[in-house]
Design goal:
two-stranded antiparallel ribbon, Collagenase (Catalytic Domain), single chain, 11 helices, about 260 residues
Length: about 260
């Protein structure tokens, strides 16, 4: 019943005209949207309207949240959902807190009976209690450069997808037709490979931060999948295939089609 009312609400919101000011912001701040075909662009706009309508944005550290900030976050987050026609648009997330720049947070780690607290500088974090924190400067950088393999919004929203399936463990709820056996085989092998290279101080295709744990590996791989898909498909085809099946998107084909239109 709750799902029925949510779908009705989403249909009502998506029927509202997409604001012209948002179109200008997208073109200026999120160049990735230029690679989308018309159906994907229209679907993205629907998802963004639902996202902004349902999520509360708050500024921290003296930051005043603007319309452009909301649009930029919503666009990058909703790109991950383009292949899901039944998406509930991050239903567990209710509040997004934006800091102007990287911020400090205390990280607690349990070592036996000892709890260690360490001060860290962060670009973002996704909580399993309906809240996300992002550094606006990092959000801007990720949106402007959509081919460097780093995007804090996509990273943190990959965590949201992961967290929606119980604990964040790098194994989100898979679509019909996918199996956890194939998922674990492909991602597990690449996670172990990244760990080995990181420990040895060797250069790796993916960000070494992905070697932290399986959840971070999934988030790092997601960033790379959308931003540097050609390299990922060429160097790690099984990983690319699993991510393409999960997200139900093929960024290599998308970017190739976009390139042919501009030639």
């Amino acid at each position: 019943m709750f799902g029925f009312f949510r779908r009705m609400r989403h249909e009502r919101i998506s029927k509202e005209p997409f604001p012209a000011s948002w179109t200008e912001i997208l073109e200026r701040q999120v160049p990735y949207v230029k690679a989308l075909d018309e159906p994907d662009r229209a679907w993205l706009e629907d998802l963004m309207q639902i996202f902004v309508h349902e999520k509360t944005f708050e500024g921290a550290g003296g930051l005043e949240v603007t319309e452009a900030m909301k649009v930029s976050v919503a666009a990058q987050a909703c790109i991950l959902l383009l292949g899901d026609e039944e998406t509930a648009v991050y239903p567990e997330l209710s509040r997004i807190i934006l800091y102007p720049a990287p911020y400090r947070a205390v990280r607690k780690a349990q070592h036996g009976a000892v709890v260690e607290e360490r001060d860290e500088v962060r670009l973002g974090e996704s909580w399993d209690r309906g809240q996300m924190v992002l550094a606006w400067s990092a959000v801007q950088q990720g949106a402007r450069n959509m081919n460097d393999g780093h995007n804090v919004v996509m990273h943190e929203f990959a965590h949201q997808l992961d967290q929606a399936h119980h604990d964040a463990d790098g194994a989100p709820e898979l679509p019909d037709g996918m199996t956890y056996g194939a998922w674990s085989k492909a991602l597990g092998r690449e996670f172990e490979n990244l760990q080995a290279k990181t420990e040895a101080g060797r250069v790796s295709l993916l960000d070494p931060y992905g070697a932290t744990n399986p959840a971070e590996f999934f988030a790092v791989a997601t960033e790379f999948f959308f931003e540097k898909p050609r390299q990922l498909k060429e160097k790690k085809p099984e990983l690319y295939a699993q991510l393409a099946a999960y997200y139900r998107q093929d960024p290599v084909a998308r970017l190739g089609a976009a390139s042919s239109k501009t030639e």
